[in-house]
Amino acid sequence: MATRRNPTARQVRLGTELRKLRDAAGLKATEAAALLGANSAQMSHIEFGIAGVSEERLRRLAAHYSCTDGELVEALVTMATDRTRGWWEEYRGLLPTPFLDLSELEHHATFRWDVDFLRVPGLLQTEEYAHGVFSHRVPELPQRELALRVEHRMKRRTIVERDQPIPYEAVVHEAALRIRVGDRTASRAQLARVLEYSEADHVTVRVIPFDLDGFTDAGSAMGYAGGAVSKLDTVVRDAPHGSALVDSEAQLGSFRTLFRRVEGASLEPESSRDFIHRLTKEL
Question: Positive or negative CA dihedral for 50, 56, 57, 58?
Fold first, then answer.
């Protein structure tokens, strides 16, 4: 059983889900390992994503765990057997691993949500806006790494620009649209980009205006990526070194509720486009 030196977040997630199934079945790692003719250390490697698992072994484990969720099992089989090496692999060793993990997560996502209050979400950013965001990092990034981060962010947009894009919804506060990361020209270009995306059938942009009464969710900025089944959804939280991925069922449920609440407080898509048009004219 070959081991991996640096498993990806997707590989770790597969192991985590297998461990959850074992725990739900009330079995010890040694018992699961015996079923596979392995030892507890090898089972631990599988559950931590350090070692892979074949489709046949995964199905045996799922049956032994009495897992009756067929859709979940099929999704886990896909995760175990997928050998995709996407565009993000060219940045391995050049950018922090969380950047690559986010790209892989989005590549396999079935939908994507963003909520932001102080910045335009990354998938909607222009190159100049992204450059401004990364330029203000402390300590300052070397020019080469700054350029790589901007380039990587631009390539992430493939999930909403490819032939079969995923549904994408962004809820953006008026503050994020008004804050000038660059100069007036760059800000106008950024608003134009948001409007351009909002016209696509698979993209929905909603705005939360300053004058909304009783709004208290300004601390709920987040990203959310849909999995093949809801149990495999992932919350994306921004961190200085990249994005932190959260997958506990309790937190997933909380963030789904938060998103629907923030979404419900925002303007409808058509009204949001009109709102952004007005902001553009003010610049």
Answer: positive
Residue 144 to residue 147: CA distance in whole angstroms: 5
CA torsion, points 232, 237, 238, 239, in degrees to nearest 10? Answer: -100
- Packed helices 55-64 and 29-36: angle between N→C axes, nearest 10 degrees: 130
User: Residue with structure tokens 């270009």?
Assistant: 189
- Which whole-number Å values give the CA distances from 15 to 45, 51, 68, 110, 269, in the listed order? 8, 9, 18, 21, 39
Q: How many residues does the chain have?
A: 283
Q: Per-residue pLDDT for the chain (283 aa), expressed as one digit of tens each?
A: 567 788 999 999 999 999 999 999 999 999 999 999 999 999 999 999 999 999 999 999 999 999 999 999 999 999 999 988 899 999 999 999 999 999 999 999 999 999 999 999 999 999 999 999 999 887 899 999 999 999 999 999 999 999 999 999 999 999 999 999 989 999 999 999 999 999 999 999 999 999 988 787 766 688 999 999 999 999 998 765 667 899 998 999 999 999 999 999 999 999 999 999 999 999 8
Q: Tell me the two tokens of residue 181.
A: 């990361």
User: Which of 110, 100, 276 has its CA nearest to residue 188?
Assistant: 276
Q: Rg for the chain (alpha carbons), in Å?
A: 21
